[in-house]
Design goal:
Length: 442
């Protein structure tokens, strides 16, 4: 509820580039044989999925393809497809693409009843001939040519480089994360916060509006300080349904490529605080189903691009008056790495138990993933800022959470937008220092 307003929308940023590494096109068609629900080009640029599937099944088929591409770059077809289905596909594509007919027929003739492992076909998608690979169950025994004979000619298909993907995993050790959102542009506010508190943050938060690029330069500064960037991507000005439908895949692919090229760990959240009603994607303004579909689609796109250096932070607001439940917004264990909870001490009676307790209980009913207090502060309106800070750290320790991210920004629009900064308040800074001393991993 405290993130930055979106910048003016820039037109044309979501258009899909004509040439880009990784998946750049998703084609929906029912021109697939029985038993085949999705396949992908061997060069990793196109996914073809059965159009008549419902949205859930279509996403599932695409996830299988994307997972296969990531794990085995030369295999890219929906798994467990019957051999006869593959032969149908090969025969159909040999007719559809006349220039490759002879090579396809050679593959069909060679495959026989032992069809399995890898076969290569050529099909047409959106008017372009695309090489595709297919995997069907276990690989057959190796075939050896008869003495004096030559092996059948090999069919060739381009494939993405095996080391195209970037992998990075952050430790989920409890009490290991101390983060900050700084009041002002650039890295200077982070340095000022570290100097005031005598603790160097190892997570630095910033907010990113839709169509905004990944801030590689800022991320480099964060990484050089020993910290990890935490980016909250907020879909201002676009609909969740359009995101889930792939309308903005060009933007997402470009962003994922930038994150992958960064090469180090990045924590990413999307549409944070969806159980509140103050954002366009929030409670009563967008459906839980569209939030889940958009979240899953974004994760799928990043994984397909090989951006496996992302820790996915599902971020909800602390449950309270006017804030909805969270269970219906859960994207599923396969799509979340950590859980973030945003919550603030705003009144004299606020405690860790009242601000965060109900939400932690609700999270524990959904997942055992580690929890990060992903946006928090104690304001002067509490009447005892040092005491509330001590209570915050004590609660994090008692619950064995990952840690916390302090929102160190001055605001002045009511109880939920106070001056949250520590700088200039010696007692508050002293309380923060003492609390942070008990985060041994920070």
């Amino acid at each position: 509820m405290t993130s930055q307003p979106p910048p003016a929308r820039r037109s044309g940023r979501h258009s899909q580039p004509s040439r880009m590494s990784g998946i750049t096109r998703i084609v929906q068609t029912d021109e697939l044989p029985d038993g085949v629900n999705a396949l992908a080009s061997a060069d990793g640029k196109t996914i073809i999925v059965r159009a008549s599937l419902d949205a859930f099944s279509r996403r599932g088929a695409m996830r299988e393809v994307m997972t296969t591409i990531r794990r085995f770059p030369r295999l890219a077809l929906y798994p467990a497809v019957a051999a006869e289905s593959i032969r149908q596909l090969l025969r159909r594509t040999s007719v559809a693409v006349s220039g490759a007919g002879q090579a396809v027929q050679q593959v069909v003739a060679t495959a026989g009843d032992h069809l399995g492992g890898v076969v290569v076909a050529v099909t047409a998608a959106a008017g372009t001939a695309i090489a595709v690979t297919a995997t069907v169950g276990a690989s057959p025994p190796a075939r050896h040519p008869a003495p004096g004979s030559s092996p059948p000619p090999a069919a060739h298909a381009s494939a993405p480089s095996p080391d195209r993907a970037v992998h990075a995993r952050l430790s989920a050790k409890p009490l290991s994360r101390l983060g900050v959102f700084g009041d002002g542009p650039g890295f200077a506010p982070v340095e000022q916060f570290a100097a005031a508190t005598h603790h160097q943050p190892n997570v630095v938060l910033y907010y990113s509006s839709w169509f905004e690029k990944f801030q590689t330069g800022f991320a480099d500064q964060i990484s050089a300080s020993g910290a990890v960037p935490l980016v909250q991507i907020n879909p201002f000005g676009v609909s969740l349904a359009d995101i889930a439908a792939g309308r903005y895949d060009g933007y997402l692919i470009s962003y994922a490529d930038q994150v992958r090229s960064f090469g180090r760990s990045v924590i990413i959240g999307f549409a944070h605080e969806p159980n509140g009603n103050w954002y366009p994607w929030g409670q009563g303004r967008s459906s839980p189903a569209s939030f889940i579909a958009a979240w899953r689609h974004i994760v799928d796109v990043f994984r397909a691009q090989g951006a496996d250096n992302v820790t996915w932070l599902w971020t909800v607001n602390s449950i309270g008056e006017g804030v909805g439940p969270i269970a219906g917004l859960w994207p599923g264990a396969a799509y979340v790495t950590w859980v973030g909870i945003d919550g603030y001490y705003v009144r004299p009676g606020d405690t860790f138990a009242s601000v965060f307790g109900p939400t932690i209980t609700a999270v524990r009913q959904l997942t055992s993933d580690q929890v990060l207090i992903s946006e928090t502060a104690a304001g002067p309106a509490t009447g005892d800022q040092p005491g509330k800070i001590a209570d915050l750290f004590a609660g994090v320790r008692a619950q064995h959470l990952l840690g916390l991210v302090w929102f160190d920004k001055a605001q002045d629009k009511g109880p939920y937008r106070q001056d949250w900064r520590l700088e200039g308040d010696p007692a508050a800074i002293a309380a923060f220092r003492r609390g942070a001393d008990y985060l041994p991993g920070s």
